[in-house]
Amino acid sequence: MKLSEKSWALFVGLVFCVTSAFAQDQKQGTSPADPNAPLQTQDANPSGGHANQPIGAARGVAGPSESQPYDPSQVSPDTNTLAGAEFFTVGSLEHSHNIFDPFLSTSVLGDYFPGIPGQSSLGAVSIVGGGLNFNRNWSRYRLTASYNGGETIAIGNAPLFAGQNSSYSQFHDLSFIQGINWARWHVLLRDDFIASPGAAFTGTGMGGPGLIGQYSSTLGASLSNIGQAFAPVQTIETGYAMRYMDSVLGQAEYSISRQSTLTFSGSYGLLHFANAGFVSSNMVSAQAGYDYLLDPRNSIAILGGYGKIDYPGTGESTTDYTASLAYGRKITGRLAFQAAGGPQEIQAAGAGVFGSFRQLSFSINSALTYQWRRSGLSFSYMHGLTAGSGVFLGATSDTFSASGYYRFTRFWTGSVNGGYAFNRSLAPAGGATSNFENWFLGANLGRQVGRHLQVNFNYGLQDQTNPSVCPVSSCGVPGFQHTFGMTVNWHLRPVPAG
Fold it and tell me: Is 339 helix (H, G, I), strand (E, B) or coil?
């Protein structure tokens, strides 16, 4: 069975498996919730342990599609630790403990893309797909699943994206999270899977940056809620190349007291390209840290990390060791801020152009979220060693992302999202390096129609600056690429108006 067929079978199996849980949920009388809103945390465990971790949509309480009125006084505190793999959030609104909401989606997009120097083309693309948001709570356990995927069809001779001639492609984004509480222990198990024909950072091959802003609860789970040390990074655009990314994360927290917590995290990730001429990679990461709560709003932490990246078929590998100090501040319902930084030693091994070498760098992970009653803003910045996005045998990457939304009325909501990535190939001191600069902007305007239907208008803009020589078989075509269009989403679960 092909990988794409397996992906669709996985989605169908997921729907089948949780249907029985849905039948029980209906008997419990759960209230409707916005299916595109972030999947949220529960209250803190009164026994001293930590509550279940969230899937973040830009790490905020409410996403751009969230229609329920936002009241900070009703927000449950976030319990993520500074030494954990997931970022801080400002908390959660408890809409519903149990959710089963499949949805169908269709999009019609225009695509204005660069071609040969001095020429550009205008084409049309349609996307037919759907997804599922699932959440099930027991006394000590919580299972969350989120999926979004579809078939992308280029109309006429229009390519799926710049410089390509394919007419059909699939994309899938699937996340599972299992949280377990045992007295002072909290265990988190998480798996994130993406299959796409372009870099997930910009949403290429998935409708572009404007369209992915509609699905922040699903794509955001894979792209913005975990530090880049725990999942393969795709921040360089290539030519058309189906790639499969999977990241498995395990985390255990032990509450020594109300003020202090030990956190241990480990992950395994892979980035595999179905097309020849690109660099696949496997990565293993481990991190341990100690958090201390200075007061109800401020905390500090010390943490250390280890990572190893292998590039199958090349004999090359990179290893890194990181030590960091971290500071975080939370104001429940309003503010979530964290910053961690420290030295990073990088060791490259192999018989490539540069052979084996060692260099000293630094690692930074930071995020800020601010929430108002009708709007919210989120920013993040990360620097450190990455696998090279399928283009380099290791890179140092600077990644910046931002998002915001504003609720105009109870039915109309607007949102914007953007990002910038700078990737530099690894080389010893004095060695020549290659650089990629990639950025994107997205905008979305959504209207709720009735109780089950949502209509969204979106626009996306992206561009990439390539080096003079492409290191792989095909790099993305430089120049502005515009996507614009309309999407209609139908949800099985009614969406309440705000």
Answer: strand
Contact of 42 with 94, CB cutoff 8 Å: yes
- Determine, yes or no, domain membership for 497: no
Buried b / exposed e along 427-466 (16+ C-beta atoms within 10 A): beeeeeebebbbbbbbbbbbebeeeeebebebbbbbbbeb
DSSP string, 145-162: EEEEEEEEEEETT--SST
pTM: 0.82
Residues paired with residue 437 on neighbouring β-strands, in sequence order: 422, 465
d(CA 94, CA 216): 18
Question: Where does 62-167 show beta strands of DSSP type E?
Answer: 75-76, 92-93, 99-114, 120-137, 141-155
- What's the pLDDT tens digit per position in 168-206? 889 999 988 898 989 899 999 999 999 999 898 988 888
Choose among 14, 301, 323: nearest CA to 173. 14
Q: Residue 131 is part of which domain span? A: 3-491
Residue 201 belongs to domain with CATH number: 2.40.160
Check if the beta carbon of residue 339 is closer than 8 Å to that of residue 348. Answer: no
Q: Would you say 311 and 317 are in contact if contact means Cβ atoms under 8 Å apart?
A: yes
